[in-house]
Write a structure and sequence with these properties.
By secondary structure, this protein is mainly alpha-helical. It has two domains: 2-118, no CATH class; 128-292, no CATH class. It has 14 helices and five strands. The strands form two sheets. It has a three-stranded antiparallel sheet. A two-stranded antiparallel ribbon has the order 2-3. Strand 4 (95-99) and strand 5 form a beta hairpin. The protein is elongated. It starts with 7 loop residues before the first helix and ends in a 5-residue tail after the last helix. Pfam families: zf-RVT. This is Reverse transcriptase zinc-binding domain-containing protein. Residues 109-193 form the Reverse transcriptase zinc-binding domain.
Length: 297
């Protein structure tokens, strides 16, 4: 945030009324920006105005009151001030305005509009709609996003950073933990994923995250929209459940058996799908899910 501080003056502008609030040196109340930057640190001494002076302090008897120019910057400021009416006591309060994406300054602040102006917009990645979609679960989509970027603190990464940690996977204890192993080379994660994926989409081959993403992004022509949505939701819920179980086994004494993990995934998916009832008489997402899953699990 502190790195963005120099940009503040380009977003915040002061519309001078009576000049009793606007800071002469620090606020952007002219098109020259903050005058302390335009004139320099010697400005207060040359203009005989304190650093904490208000705009009204530069006015006397309704006119600008500034000493003779002693630098080109001060001369440029004085010329510019001739185009600005001095603040008057009856002109109302000073008003601070924020720049919108349209370039117009407004009394209303928009965090989204500000971010859109600050961010460097990149082209959408191919897997974006697999992570972020209407039926997503934010906490789960966030973890899936980190998995795709390979940014989770898996043990292989911790070891590469010089940390003294065990290398084995907490889920199977027989292989080194890594992103590829957890999602989904690990026998436990394979079993959990294939239990649901085979019933929803017929997927039965050894799952690897890149191939799963490709299948969801470019499903067979015969795949229904409901199946694609269920697979997207299932992927992030399964990834989230595995990462949570991994952490529980490391930091607590909890060791959830596979049949209980299946119940966790099933309950999470069902709870989310309850929010999307059928609107046109066709089967809802939850009904489509129930058509794939047999109980008890």
């Amino acid at each position: 945030m502190l790195k963005l501080k120099p940009l503040l003056s380009t977003f915040l502008k002061c519309e001078v009324g009576n000049g009793t609030v606007a800071a002469f040196w620090w606020d952007s109340w002219t098109t020259l920006g903050p005058l302390i930057d335009f004139v320099g640190t010697t400005g207060p001494r040359m203009l005989r105005l304190r650093l904490d002076a208000r705009v009204a302090d530069a006015v006397q008897l309704g006119n600008w009151r500034l000493p003779n120019a002693r630098s080109d910057a001060v001369q440029a400021l004085q010329i510019h001030l001739t185009t600005i009416s001095p603040p008057q006591a009856g002109s109302g309060e000073d008003t601070y305005l924020w720049r919108l994406p349209s370039g117009i300054y407004s009394k209303n602040f928009s965090s989204k509009g500000t971010w859109e102006q600050l961010r460097v917009r990149s082209l959408p990645v191919s897997w974006a709609k697999t992570v972020w979609f209407t039926e997503e679960i934010p906490r789960a989509s966030f973890i899936l996003w980190l998995v795709i970027l390979r940014r989770l603190p898996t043990r292989d990464r911790l070891l590469s950073w010089g940390m003294n940690v065990p290398e084995e996977c907490p889920l199977c204890t027989s292989h080194q933990e890594s992103h590829d192993h957890l999602f989904f080379e690990c026998p436990l994660s394979q079993e959990l994923w294939l239990f649901f994926a085979s019933r929803i989409s017929g997927q039965s081959q050894q799952p690897l995250l890149p191939s799963i993403l490709d299948t969801i992004l470019l499903p067979p022509i015969s795949t229904s929209a409901h199946t694609t949505t269920l697979m997207r939701l299932l992927l992030q819920v399964t990834v989230y459940a595995l990462w949570r179980e991994r952490n529980a086994r490391i930091f607590t004494t909890t060791n959830t058996p596979i049949h209980a993990l299946k119940g966790v995934v099933d309950r999470t998916v069902r709870d989310r799908l309850l929010s999307f009832p059928s609107l046109d008489g066709t089967p809802s997402l939850l009904e489509s899910y129930f058509a794939c899953i047999s109980y008890p699990l």
